[in-house]
Amino acid sequence: MTTSNGPRLDGGRPLGQVLVEAGLITRQNLADALTQQSRSGGRIGTHLVLMGVISRLELYSGVADQLGFPFVDLTAEPAESHLMEHIDPRAQLELDWIPYRLEEDTLVVATSEPPTREIIREAVAAFGVQHVDFVITTDWDIDQAISSQCRGRLIFNAAEELAALRPDQSAKGKPVTWQRLVTYMVAVALIAGLILQPANTILAVLAILNVVFALAIMFKVVTTTVGLIRMREERLLRRALREAGARMAARQDDTDLPVYTILVPVFREANVVNMVMEHVGHLDWPKSKLQVLILAEEDDHETIEACKEAKPPEFVRLLVVPRGTPQTKPRACNFGLMFSLGEYLVIYDAEDQPDPDQLRNAHAAFLADQHAEDQSRPLACVQAALNYFNWKSNLLTRMFTLEYSSWFDGMLYGMEFFRLPIPLGGTSNHFRTDRLRELGGWDPYNVTEDADLGMRASAAGYRVGTIESTTWEEACSQIPAFIRQRTRWIKGYMITALVDLRYPIKFTRAAGARSLFTLIGLIVGTPFLFLSYPIVWGITIYVYLGFETFGLTIPDWLGALATFNAVFGNILILGLAAITGAVRHGWRISGYAVLNPVYWCLHAIASWRALFQVFFQPFHWEKTPHGLSGAPEENAAVH
């Protein structure tokens, strides 16, 4: 095994010197880049590119000159397709080289890294050649070559791999035998009951709905109340953990920080692309250790053009997701995951405005977990709090804000106290990338892939934590858009429940008995809560106005339960929403909580749409429009 140019594997003159001698940079440019490198680490070439004094193409041409190998532009001279057919595209993305040419018994390898004998061994083992030679190209060219020449396999990995390798965990699979049998039996019993004993059958259905409604209400009330009571203690505890992690991080300087990948899936969002550049630019993390991937769908030409016209900085890259089905956010994220370089990874929506120190807070939480005594359930992900910068836009955004304040500033604290599995929100999920890959990424066929992934993490023996940091989002300000969004969320909860309950004993053994409280009380309970909401109010009105229909007499206990659910359940929920809203935004928003019964009527509409779609459009993704409320307000205006 030899190379045609063995001595050049050891490199040559320093890269900075090569670039100065070639006239590509000045000595002052080099001095400035060295200063930046001493502060935050990373490669000198990365800093020169980030400074804008040299292009990526010029940098790698200089690397080729430094090492004494030819430079190739893979867009103009692509790799031989028959060679690319033999690689595993995902594995090759991690290796930073691809087969370029086969010349008799010599394989020419295109690499963006200094050639090493390890690459030679890998190439010889993969292609059975006697000799290996090298050409230099850019890292982006290698990614683009794999993306274009291994398109079909990458599409499969992003869309179908979870369903193929773990069909019991994918929403693509159909209900299992016992689920189908129970569904048929319930349907037959209901139809027979309505024919033979209509009054008793209706009473039985009403009783079941009211009991499940009460259980769902109590889950929210108990967890949110405990979260509020323990909020101060939990915040102090999390702050102590964060400070412990921060002290560990402080022992390292920025030169030792890992690479952090940010995925930003966008679809028909040309109007908010510039927000991405602005908000990620404010994050307190060395830009030389930051990889931002904007994931745009191949047929979304307007957003792709907007991304190009925005001229993003060098740490921000547009990654075009090949056309395919299902065309969903999790499929795009899976595609981005294959190109992710970071030790940690976070998802942001295009309009998101995360707190500047959020990445450092998440990193500190992971460091603290690594040194924790209890490693029975290691940390796979931390969820930042979500809230809304446009909460003052109209009544709907105020109600949305009260709901999110109750969820992220109350209920999640309670769920964490009870050590219950936490369904993730759709954004600001910070992962250890290796554990995310171990979990199989996101399920492209689940329209609430975030909640599903939180439950799968629990079943895999991991846990989801929270951090005291906020991402400011845009709340839906239009009722039709809100109903479409809630339809998708509630439908996803229904599908997640069906997936997790395929093998309930297996799931409970893996995730623990506590997981059933989240699964039944939240994942199953939330759709039931909103589906039964108009029915619960209907019974209350029926009882207290004395209507007589079909000779139906409501038992006192059922009337009392329905009244408790409709009246006192609403009072409890709106009271907690008022308190958590006041904690986050002040008492001026709390009065709007009295509109919660009307707000839940919108959820009821969405939940019945969701139930219809579960049967007829299970994978249909109703996109949430962004940019309806204009530019985000400053954080000072929303605290």
Give an overview in words:
With 639 residues, this protein is α/β, with parallel strands linked by helices. The protein is 55% helix and 11% strand. It has helices at residues 15-21, 27-40, 44-51, 56-67, 81-84, 89-95, 117-127, 139-149, 151-159, 161-165, 177-196, 198-229, 231-250, 273-281, 301-309, 329-338, 358-370, 395-417, 433-438, 449-459, 479-500, 504-511, 515-545, 556-585, 596-616; strands spanning 2-3, 97-103, 106-111, 131-136, 260-266, 290-297, 316-321, 344-347, 353-354, 379-388, 429-432, 463-473. It has an eight-stranded mixed beta sheet, with helices on both faces. Strands 1-4-3-2 form a four-stranded mixed beta sheet. Strand 2 (97-103) and strand 3 (106-111) form a beta hairpin. The longest helix is centred in the middle third of the chain and has 32 residues, at 198-229. The model is unreliable at 633-639 (pLDDT under 50).
Feature tags:
single chain, 639 residues, alpha/beta, 8-stranded mixed beta sheet, 4-stranded mixed beta sheet, 25 helices, 12 strands, 55% helix, elongated, disordered C terminus
Q: Order of strands in the sheet with the most strands? A: 7-6-5-8-11-10-12-9
Q: Compute the gyration radius: what is it?
A: 28 Å
Number of beta strands = 12
Count the DSSP helices. Answer: 25
In percent, how helical is the residue content?
55-70%
Largest sheet: 8 strands, mixed
The residue-averaged pLDDT reads 89
Distance linking N and C termini: 64 Å
Q: Uncertain spans, ≥5 residues at pLDDT below 50? A: 633-639
Strand content: 5-15%
